[in-house]
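Re: beginner question about structure tokens

> Can someone show what the tokenized structure looks like for a real chain? I only ever see the sequence side.

Sure, here's an example I had lying around. Input first:
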Amino acid sequence: MADDVAVDNPLTPAERAQLQNDWYQQRLSLPIALRLPLYLSISSLTGFGLGIIHGTRETGKNAHRLPTTQAGWYLYHKSKNYVSLLGGLKEGFRMGGRLALWTGLFAGMEQGIDRFRSVAYRTFLAQPAVEPLPPRGSPAREVERRRRITERREREAERERSNDFLSTAFAGLGTAGAFSLVNGFPLPTFRRIAMMGLKAGFAFGLLQDAVSMARGRRLGYVEWIRSQLGREKIEDNLAVGSSAG
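And the corresponding structure tokens:
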């Protein structure tokens, strides 16, 4: 790539630590390799718990079919709890797996939209011209090399700032649409579920942004709002100064 930097010497421990911690600029300050298992674990456990409750209740619906013989009553009391627990476990695993599958699809869509926005940002943003490094062995070469590494890291962080709630909202919309298509819902139901997915993705995206900001991540739209507010404040101060003069 044009902005790649030729490395003559190994990085210092501080630089290696900084490169390893660059994933703090990602969603929830976690890379996708850690974020996806977190999503899947929470969703599968939630689905498992809901499935156990639902399966136990469904199995208990047959409790009104009481036996009429002494042997039937004996078997009824002996197997009632076992059958109820078994039905709950089956439903728990089934619902947990389904919820984890849809959560994985949502996370994949979210990551894909993030990557698309980052590539678009990199494509349409003018890249700085790269000039040859100073001669090998000169002190200026090492200084220039480290300066370019810092600039490249800043550009990567700038691209990551576009990973915000918009990607999550569209991922929620896409997941809801896929869920409706798979289940063959009619158009009114499709629209209602799509709006629910969009709103849920919007809310979850804002929650992710809040957590990321609390951990020190800088977001593009937040930085833009701050710059606009700062510009207005400067213009107001200039206007007050000119009127006073």
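Each token stands for a local structural state, so reading them left to right follows the chain. Residues 163-217 form one domain.
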